[in-house]
């Protein structure tokens, strides 16, 4: 039981650190964070569009983030590494935020979702799924959900840990819209499955 409790506690801490960094690094184009705990330190790798904004002048910003994580989340010897996002169309958080921004500008939801799915696959993804839930039409319309997926997207089993996932929320005039994006990045290997990006039928969008 002690081991299970420790595992749960570590998972909660990792979730809270990711949430904290997501809020603090919005302007840097925060995408995701990977946390690896070792006997010596806790390595925190942050993926962003603008690494310079995370590091700050003379390293002041990253030093402040490190101290905050150490004190707020009781993490021993945190070490933050900053990585620049190579392709924003393969990062669910960045895709979800772009979709949310377009919803807020009043662009048709189905058109936005289909366009973004195509862009994600055009950039090499093996599979992608976008789900939008909420007031997707004009004022007075009922809340509904649009779910579109294309390519290979596992739904169960340990392999779902290989799928990147992120959420964002749009706030247009007529009500909030939740956006969930799941992406299977290029080069992902699933046991017993042979799938290459070029083999994905890009023209097929399944509801």
Description:
By secondary structure, the protein is of the alpha+beta class. The protein has two domains: 2-84, GMP Synthetase, Chain A, domain 3 (2-Layer Sandwich), CATH 3.30.300.20; 88-199, Ribosomal protein S3 C-terminal domain (2-Layer Sandwich). Helix content is 33%, strand content 26%. The protein has five helices and seven strands; from the N terminus they run αββααβααββββ. It has helices at 2-24, 51-55, 60-72, 92-104, 109-122, and strands at 30-37, 42-48, 78-84, 127-134, 144-151, 164-170, 177-184. The strands form two sheets. A four-stranded antiparallel sheet has the order 5-4-7-6, covered by helices on one side. The longest helix is centred in the N-terminal third of the chain and has 23 residues, at 2-24. 30% of the residues are buried. Residues 197-207 have low confidence and may be disordered.
